[in-house]
Each structure stands twice: as C-alpha cells, then as structure tokens.
Amino acid sequence: MRRTMIAGLGVILSGGVVSGCVVVDASNSGNGRPVAIESETIRYETAPCFGTCPVYAVTIAPNGKGTFEGKRFTAVTGIKEFQATPAAYHTFAARLAPYRPRENEMLYQPGTPNCGNAPTDMPSVDVVWSELSGGSQHLNVYYGCGPQEMREALRSAPTALPIAAFIGDPRRPR
Fold this sequence. Notes:
The protein is an alpha+beta fold.
C-alpha cells in the first residue's frame, strides 16, 4: 500500500514537472536560458527621456493577441488592442531572447555593476516575461548602459509587431 502511494506521488510530481510553465534550454546554443513557452506574455515598456521619446507599453501573447498603451509622444494615446501573427510574436520574442535574464532580474542602470559612467537623459526599456505559473524574468535597460548590440536589439524588437502606426513617425525628432 505504502509503495503504491509513493509511486502515485512520483507520477503526480513528475507530471507537474512535465506540465510546468518553466522551460530551460539545456542545449549548448541556449546556454541554460529560459525559453518562450505558449502560456507566457511579454511586456515591453519604454520610459521617458529628455525630449520627445515615445513612451508606451506593449504586451503580447504567443497567439499574437496584444495591447498597446500610448502614454506620451505617440500617435495613439491610451489603450489599443491589436492582433499580430504568432510568427510576429516569435520574431519579437527571439530578438529579446538573448537578453532574457537567467535569474529573475537583470538591471543595466547607472549605479549598478552593469553600468559605468553613463550619459544622462537617455530613455530606457523595461521588459517582463510573465509565465502562467506566476514566474517571471525582468530586464531593465537604461540606453546609456550595456553593450551597444543589446541596446540596438532592444530598440528594434518592436518593429516585429504591427504597432508602428500607434507609435508614430520615426523621423520625428526624439
């Protein structure tokens, strides 16, 4: 009887692990980083700068269902829902993936070990990967800190989504 209960508990626990929402890429190419799964969302939010940088937040799910919230210096102010393709979501997620923290949080802000002497009045971006289980990873990057390649990738990620008309004219001075 006891052996049956222990075996049953093992099946329940292993089922929980298999169906859990946290997936880690153990391959050599993934470097043990968390990878996108079908139940998570990504929230990408820009912060103000000294000037007219667009300030907005966009949240998107793997099925392409998204919400844009224009805050300042955007063509659309307020909340606007949109539908992207799953492929657009995966392109967006792939652009962000190399910078997704292995742990819960990574900050590139003045005064942190990841940022030396940084210029002032730059914008920043805040990215949160939220899993259905309640787990999340958080990346906050001040654009005066961190590697140039990372900053360029983070700035370009939203171009994968159908939100350009919500943000406005990219030629506008910022």
